[in-house]
Design brief:
single chain; mainly alpha; 2 domains; 12 helices
């Protein structure tokens, strides 16, 4: 199986879950809701509604990008030349900025709420004041983190692994920040997803390593370190999500490691060991001894005088 296609296939399930969650929250639901004819409604209510502005009506725009087509995610240039990502949904379009907050907002004049609160922390430290996040602060950070989550899934799906690694690293810093300065309950609400975020982060870094340098061994090193990190996590209290994400992330990383290992060329020594094991299984002990001597000779030459 192609090393890069495997995670791309798996992430489609994540993206579908995002879309399903979007529908479950009520967006795009039509069950039991009759279609409304605007002229009939105007007569029934007794007063005509103002006509819709052509600039606000998206009908022609959506008609030009059919949801049933193959392309549901695209990168386009905005009027000022910057690139944005657009996602075609059943009833509309979402647009993501590539830099800064995915929605392009700058709360309090900063790149994000996270940047704002980090600056607040530094200001408190200069004045030797205690810094804590309020419930409102946490809500802002939590909602903002979800925006970055949706965007790094998009980056992964379109194989923008460098940008995916950037956004997952950002959300890992957010989890650490909230763990220090929010209540234990609020900290757990984000920390329970840490195994998943780390898994996405190391997969993005590993696949970027292959994409940019064709470095399978380097990618495997990144994945193995990530797997060890997740395995070392201690359980979180009062949440089953953490253990589920930990188990799932370990399996997916182990599966990817196995698939990549199958593509790594064997060294001379590894090939000889494989031949020796085969000779032993066939009870050809003379051949096995001969290969063992070759391995010993190779080891001596490798170590040098």
């Amino acid at each position: 199986m192609d090393a890069e296609a495997w995670p791309s296939e798996s992430v489609r399930g994540h993206w579908m879950s995002v879309l399903c969650g979007w529908r479950r929250r009520g967006h795009g639901r039509t069950e039991g809701i009759p279609l409304r004819d605007s002229e009939t409604e105007n007569k029934r209510e007794g007063s005509p509604r103002p006509p819709r502005s052509p600039g606000q009506d998206l009908t022609s725009f959506l008609a030009g990008w059919d949801y049933d087509g193959e392309e549901k995610i695209r990168r386009v240039k905005a009027s000022d030349g910057r690139e944005v990502i657009q996602v075609r949904l059943p009833l509309g379009v979402e647009q993501y900025e590539l830099e800064g907050r995915p929605d392009g907002k700058r709360p309090m004049g900063h790149e994000s709420w996270f940047h704002h609160y980090v600056r607040e922390l530094r200001a408190h430290a200069r004045e030797s004041k205690e810094f804590r996040l309020t419930s409102e602060d946490f809500s802002r950070l939590h909602e903002e983190g979800l925006l970055y989550y949706h965007r790094y899934l998009l980056f992964f799906q379109i194989q923008e692994y460098r940008l995916c690694a950037r956004d997952t690293r950002r959300n890992l810093r957010l989890v650490a920040f909230v763990s220090r300065f929010a209540s234990p309950e609020q900290a757990t609400e984000l920390a329970q997803y840490k195994p998943y975020i780390i898994r996405m982060h190391v997969m993005a870094r590993a696949l970027r390593r292959i994409q940019a340098r064709n470095d399978l061994r380097g990618a495997l090193h990144i994945l193995r370190r990530g797997l060890k990190l997740i395995e070392a996590f201690r359980p979180l209290r009062d949440t089953q999500v953490f253990q589920w994400e930990k188990t799932r992330s370990k399996k997916m990383l182990a599966d990817l490691i196995s698939q990549l290992e199958a593509h790594v060329p064997l060294s001379r020594r590894a090939m000889l060991k494989r031949q020796m094991n085969w000779a032993v299984r066939e009870e050809d002990y003379e051949k096995a001894a001969e290969i063992r001597d070759q391995i010993a000779s190779l080891r001596k030459r490798t170590k040098g005088p």
